[in-house]
Amino acid sequence: MTTHAFIDPSARVGKNVKLGKGVVIRANVIIEDDCIINDDVIIDYGTVIRSCTAIGKGSSIGVNAIVGQAPSRARTSTLSADPDLPGLMVGENCQICAGAIVYAGTVLGSGCFIADSAQVREHCRLGENVIVGHASTIENNCIIGDRTKIQTGVYIVAGSVLEEDVFIAPMVTTTNDNFVARTEERFKYRKGVTVKKGGRIAGNAVILPGVTIGQEALVAAGSVVTKDVPAFKVVMGIPARVVRDVPPEQIIHRD
User: Fold this and answer.
1) In 113-142, which positions are buried (b, 16+ CB within 10 angstroms) versus exposed (e)?
2) Which candidate, 114, 120, 100, 183, places its Cα nearest to that of 149?
3) Whether 96 contacts 102, CB under 8 Å
4) Which of 94, 121, 140, 152 might form a disulfide with 112, Cβ 3.0–4.6 angstroms?
5) What are phi and psi of 186, to 5 degrees?
6) Phi then psi dihedrals of residue 78, to 5 deg
7) Per DSSP, what are the bridge partners of residue 126?
8) What does the pLDDT look like over 114-143, one tens digit per residue?
């Protein structure tokens, strides 16, 4: 370990951990064996100093990343404060790359890859081997299933559910507010999107609030999806409409 790091006395650092210059490890953080923590990384504990942010064995954290970040809110934010937010839990063999921010209260399954400048907010649950691409954002309270791939510049809105083996192409946007921030009534209806297992969304598509993309369905590039998409169907257009079945050779989940 380098001497150019701040390690709180209550933190626990395992064997064969490599620490870069300027690393800050806050109270009660646990770093398991064989991790690599690069220069200027901050590992925090959420909002409860007694809670534990844990980094699993063999994981790596890139330059200038912040993990276990406590959320900040504007005075006009509609989100309530979370004074009891626990630490971040990072599974084994994860990669959190340069400049990424992963918030407290979230769980990353083993083998997750969080790319440069990506952001994963609080109270999210990512399964095993999930990929979150460069500059993508996963907002709070999302569930992401095993082996799901989220490409560059994707926005996954709060409260969304992406099941196993979902593929989200670059620049896809999901939404959860049909009232577009007008009237108090919107809070009763705010809802993220759901993509069932094996679902795919191509580049630059926009998914409206509460929409469900069915199992193995495919949304074509540039589409605007205003209503639920049936399983095993291809939709395209503005608004998106069913145009054909997904080819059988492309289906991985038939149950």
Assistant:
1) bbbbbbbbbbbbbbbbbbbbbbbbbbbbbb
2) 114
3) yes
4) 94
5) -60, -30
6) -85, -5
7) 108, 144
8) 999 999 999 999 999 999 999 999 999 999
